[in-house]
Specification:
Elements: H1 2-35, H2 50-58, H3 63-73, E1 77-82, E2 85-90, H4 92-101, E3 107-109, H5 113-118, H6 121-124, H7 128-138, H8 140-143, H9 145-148, H10 152-166, E4 172-174, H11 175-191, H12 198-214, H13 225-252, H14 262-267, H15 276-307, H16 309-324, H17 334-338, H18 341-353, E5 359-364, E6 368-370, E7 373-375, E8 380-384, H19 386-389, H20 429-446, E9 447-451, E10 458-461, E11 463-466, E12 471-476
Parallel strand pairs: 2-8
Antiparallel strand pairs: 1-2, 3-5, 4-12, 5-8, 6-7, 9-12, 10-11
Helix pairs in contact: 10-11, 10-20, 11-15, 12-13, 13-15, 15-16, 15-18, 15-20, 16-20
Length: 479
């Protein structure tokens, strides 16, 4: 009887303690895993630290969110909670390099669910990550410098007409909306060459609604910003699909040529059987980047050239020499672009101080460690340009405007990253360079200007923009 009772007691104890021991081991493992995460906090329930992150940009100091936490945690990697996602922020060139060079190995592109709704073809036909990779494979051949240089004359003509129509007739202008209109018109001409000039104006309003929706709260009810963005996306994509179908017919009938624009070039390569919606989304993505990001950079250039007369004089001297070497009305060419070295150094220093885009997200696809910290699968990773751009370790006196930083071999690898870096370099970086340089040429050879609001600050509202749009007073150059 005692043996039986002892057996029963042992069974009861094992029934209680074995699961308890298993639970304790599991809890200890979770604690150990949590302890191995980078330092940081997750902030408020649901919203996390999103408000602090966004508020820093709205107040004109987007780097504050990053550097406050680097200082607090004494770490170049920290955890937070952004846009309803558990997020680890990577800072410094080593973190940039890892994220830029580990695509499909450790990380992959990540888009918020809101993007899936605004660009539904990328989620219905394939995953957002696969769509991004397909787009990246398709675009580089069309956006290489040697391919784009054939369009310098077209860029010059569009830019010349823009300044004649929108700037020369005015004593005062508000730069940001003018430049947004210019970069959209130029992108439309180069990518799809619309038959009707009014088509650009017709696309402008829905494109604005779409861009506002990408950075809005994703509530899909009639009348909300997000709902308007979904409708705008549907309208624009239908327009593009119609253009693509007409262009295919025109190419077959000889009414269009592969050199007419980038769309025609795309449709006459091995990718000519691509789904119209996929091509439409790729073009739409390039128009978004080609409008707002480049408009941000060009507007910031106008701001700094107004504030720094000695820098303006350097750019003016370089550009007026190029202008004087040409016959009246003769467009810029690739040789002229190659002479604009100081102007590009100035543009780079502007983008270091006021990067159009602050950073992007990735998703972890397999557990790994970084600097001794655990980086768990499914977490989101974020890199931010300011962690290097405004770090005195990589750019001494980081608030000082100094174009000479980009002479010779330039900054150390993965420290100057307005376009990303490595295999994840923005495919439109050469396109942006050409647009910016052609814009600078026509700007400084025609005008001098002064800011109407001397202390106007720059904020981050999706991209970096002057809070009041940068109103300036123009003075025509006498050549």
């Amino acid at each position: 009887m005692e043996i039986f009772a002892s057996t029963i007691l042992s069974l009861l104890l094992s029934t209680i303690f074995f699961p308890l021991s298993f639970l304790l081991i599991k809890l200890n493992r979770r604690r150990a895993a949590a302890a191995a995460l980078p330092p940081g906090k997750t902030g408020w329930p649901i919203i996390g630290e999103s408000l602090e992150f966004l508020s820093a940009g709205w107040k004109g100091h987007p780097e504050k969110f990053i550097f406050d936490r680097i200082t607090k945690y004494s770490s170049l990697v920290f955890k937070t909670h952004l846009f309803r996602e558990k997020t680890i922020v990577f800072c410094g060139p080593a973190g940039n390099k890892l994220l830029f060079t580990s695509e499909k190995k450790l990380v992959q592109v990540w888009f918020p669910s809101s993007v899936d709704k605004i660009f539904p073809s990328s989620s219905n036909q394939t995953t957002p990550n696969e769509f991004a990779l397909d787009a990246r494979k398709m675009l580089p051949s069309f956006l290489r410098l040697d391919a784009l240089l054939r369009y310098v004359g077209v860029m010059d003509n569009v830019t010349r007409r823009h300044f004649e129509d929108r700037w020369e007739k005015n004593e005062k202008v508000v730069v940001l909306p003018l430049v947004k209109n210019y970069t959209l018109e130029l992108a439309c001409r180069l990518f799809i060459s619309p038959e009707d000039p009014c088509e650009v104006e017709r696309l402008s309003k829905p494109l604005n609604a779409l861009l506002l929706g990408i950075f809005s709260i994703p509530i899909d009810f009639p009348g909300t910003t997000f709902n308007k963005a979904i409708k705008a996306s549907d309208f624009i994509r239908k327009e593009f699909v119609s253009i693509i179908k007409r262009r295919k017919i025109d190419l077959l009938q000889g009414k269009a040529t592969p050199t007419q624009d980038i769309l025609s070039h795309m449709l006459t390569t091995k990718n000519d059987n691509s789904r119209e919606l996929s091509v439409a989304d790729i073009i739409l993505g390039m128009l978004i980047g080609g409008r707002d990001n480049i408009a941000s950079a060009c507007t910031s250039i106008v701001k700094y050239l107004a504030e720094l007369p000695q820098v303006y004089e350097g750019v003016y001297k370089e550009q007026i020499e190029i202008g004087n070497s040409k016959a009246p009305g003769e467009p810029l060419n690739k040789e002229d672009i190659q002479k604009m070295k100081y102007s590009w150094n100035v543009a780079c220093e502007v983008m270091r101080l006021v990067p159009p885009t602050q950073g992007t997200f990735r998703e972890v696809i397999t557990d790994f460690t970084y600097n001794g910290f655990s980086i768990p699968k499914k977490w989101k990773l974020y890199w931010n340009v300011n962690s290097t751009h405004k770090n005195p370790e990589f750019f001494p006196e980081p608030q000082k405007f100094d174009p000479s930083r980009f002479e010779g071999s330039g900054p150390a690898p993965y420290t100057f990253v307005p376009f990303g870096g490595g295999p994840r370099m923005c495919p439109g970086n050469e396109y942006a360079r050409l647009v910016i340089l052609v814009f600078m040429h026509h700007l400084v050879t025609r005008f001098r200007w002064e800011k109407i609001i001397p202390d106007e600050k720059t904020i981050v509202d999706g991209v970096s923009v002057p809070a009041k749009g940068l109103p300036v007073r123009l003075f025509v150059n006498k050549v």
